[in-house]
Amino acid sequence: MEIIVAENAGFCFGVKRALELVARAANDSSRPVYTLGALIHNPQEVARLEVSGVKQVGGVEEVEEGALVLSAHGVDPGVEREARTRGLPVIDATCPFVKRAHDHIVTLAREGYSVVILGDPGHREVEGLAARVSGKAAIVATAREAERLPFRKRYGLVVQTTQRPEALREVAGALAERCRELRVFNTICEATMKRQESARELAERVDAMIVVGGRNSANTKRLVEICAATGTPTHHVETADELESAWIRGAARVGVTAGASTPGWIIDDVVSHLRELEAEGSVV
Q1: Which residues carry out catalysis?
Q2: What is the pTM of this model?
Q3: Which structural domains are found in the chain, ordered by start?
C-alpha cells in the first residue's frame, strides 16, 4: 500500500508564528503566560502547551498577573483594550492574514458599505471580524443565506480566511443581485487555498483519504468536505488511534492531508499507524 501525504498539509505560517511567540514568552520564567481561549484549534497541541506551563483562560478577568496571548484567530478589540487597561502585557498572536481581514472590514464600514462576512457563525475569527464593526455586519455561510439579505445600495464583502474560493464566488454572485455596488475583499489566505487544492488533487488519485486535524478546526472540516466531494472515501481523525483498518482495506493508495493547526508529529503518527496496520495484515 502506498501512503501519500499531500504536498501542502499541516502547520501554516500563522500557526507557526503563534506557537513561536508563545514559546518565547514561556521561556521567560519571570511571569506566567496565559492564552485567551485555545491558541489554535488543535486539542493535542494545546495540551502540549499546557504541559509547558502555558495556561488557557476564558476571559481577561481570570488573569491577575502575567502575559496574555491573543489567539491566532483574533479577538474582539475591546478584550485587548481591557487587558492593557489592567496593565497586562499583551502578546498578539493574531495571524497576519486575519489582521488583513480586520483592516478591510474597518475600511468598508468607514466608507459606508453594508458589511457582509462570509464565514461560520460562532467561529472566533468571524466573531472577531464582526466586533471590529460593533457587530453591525451580516454573517452568511452560504449563497442562499446571502440571497435573503435586504436590497442595499452598497454591499462590502470580507471572508473568513479558511473559506473555499467556490463559496466566495457563489456568495459574491448572490450579493451582486442585492445591491447596486458590490466591493469584495478576497481575504482567504493563500496557504488555505494551496492546502485545499493540494487535498483535492490528491483525493482524486487515491482510494481513500485521511484528513487529520482538530474537530473544532474550521479549515480541517473544509478539507474533509473538499476530499469527500471528489467521491473518494474520506475519514477525519484527530489522532492515529482513531484510524480503522476497514477504511483502507483493499486500498492500493491512501492519501493523507492535515489542517493548518495540525502539528507534524501527529501527521507522522498517522502515517506510522497506517504502516502498522499494513504490517499486521489488517490491510488486505
Answers
A1: 125
A2: 0.84
A3: 2-10+190-279 (3.40.1010.20), 13-94 (3.40.50.11270), 97-184 (3.40.1010.20)
